[in-house]
Design goal:
The protein is an all-beta fold. Helix content is about 0%, strand content about 40%. It has two domains: about 5-175, Sandwich (Immunoglobulin-like); about 185-295, Immunoglobulins (Immunoglobulin-like, Sandwich). Strands 2, 3, 14, 15, 16, 17 and 20 form a seven-stranded mixed beta sheet that branches. Strands 1-12-11-7-8 form a five-stranded antiparallel beta sheet, with no helix packed on it. This is Heavy metal-binding domain-containing protein.
Amino acid sequence: MNTATKLSGFALGLTAVFGAAYGVGHLAGPVAPAAETRHDATAPGHDLADAGHGDGHASGDAAAHLPGGLLVSDRGYTLQPVTAPAGEFAFRISGPDGRPVTRFDVAHDKRMHLIVARRDLSGFRHVHPELTADGTWRVASPLAGPGVWRAFADFTPTGAEPLTLGVDVTVPGALAERPLPAPATSTTVDGYTVTLTGAPQPGRSSRLTLTVSRDGRPVTDLQPYLGAYGHLVALRQGDLAYLHVHPEGAPGDGRTPAGPAVSFAAEVPSAGAYRLYLDFRHGDAVHTAEFTVLAGDVPPPAAPAPTTAPTPDADHGTPGHGHS
């Protein structure tokens, strides 16, 4: 798109946290965001802050207690969106020395996973940018329309621990926020029916099993996707805390069937509403099934009030981050 977009990291002083782990995820604490801290600058990527010092870099204590996805900077690594041509999304990861990182380990078949979702939890996309020689990651823009989007970069710098950094991206234009869909145990996507068994229970680990069928028949030949038969991302309504887990077992291990059921374990110690996004591959295409689930005894989510995505001013906009 030709209209500039505005990128900003938010200081979320939250006790609600997600931890990412293979097979088991953790979420804790109520949603209690603090006031936003911002530092404006004319250069792209400088409107960034987090729950550390408010300068875009987390303190050691903050990094130790806050999860991936809520910070734009963690353990010396910073997510920095950069100017890109129309229809493209681009960013860099700077390291503790302030230089762009160019070496990343492969995790789940890719060196970088970019997940985006609008803050009303619609418009989810999971894509894989390509790294250029100067340390810039580039991909066709996954932002599918006006709104405030949260972009999560999920990666492992070579020689360091896995990280998930997050930044908000505003695509200007008229916007009517979508209400969070009601909780359900079944959904359809691209002709597939996906059924959810189990529910997250605050305070203990719960098994979530997602079963895939088509035309009333179980799908027993799911194809591996990123080294697994399914990938699950969960975002919590309100703070968009991020949980990325993978199923029990793996393709080719001699014991994990290729469907119809894909099981995950997740620990959700606090009550709340969550949106689940299951990526699975079948028929040589990737499909995404979405669910709303409630953990604990909480009322159904309320519909958001209509709003308008702000148009950035000329000084602080970052051109080139359009929607595809």
